Amino acid sequence: MADWIHSSMRLDGSVLSRQEVEKMLKGELALGASLSEHLAIERYGDLFKSTESSLAMSSCLSKEMILSFHRRLAGGAGTGYRKGNPVLLSIDHNPPHPSEIEEQMNILMSWFYSSDMGGDPVLKAVCLHHRIIEIYPFDEYSAAVARAAMYYFLMEKGYPVFEISMSEQKYNLSVIEYLKKENPQPFYEEVANSLLKKMELLIQLTA
User: Which residue segment(s) compose the domain that 192 sits in?
Assistant: First the structure.
């Protein structure tokens, strides 16, 4: 759980250490963390527990599940897709008009159900992540939801949760590379390498 949450917090700009994240996940206060960061950790923990329950029931990723990810990250206040049309300066992107989001999400899920990306689940997970950010369906937490969908799909495929070893700036640049050139490779390499490191660590621990 800490791998996912620490990664997502860092990629959204937080400077919390992994130790601080782990402390807050235990319900303890971290003096270096703000109230909003404590709240975010609590909501991420709730999201992770819900994904574990869904996986235990063999539930497949769906549009409804993606909406539920957003509701949990928004503390139950998520009422659906965004109504505004933001300019995303950090990734140099103008997402679709709000009136197009429902259709774009349906197109996304149609692609998700029909494509196997050459049998590479990591590549499919990365492209799913990028395409959700491209649509940017929510006023807040769209990138966090995109990462949650990526993690969930990989967990469905039997992969462990892992920490993405990249900075916020490098992450944003990898998203820009996809949005401008449809090139998933920079983020794919980071995800694949991070996943490989986690799997190697697990093998060492069980050897």
Answer: 2-206
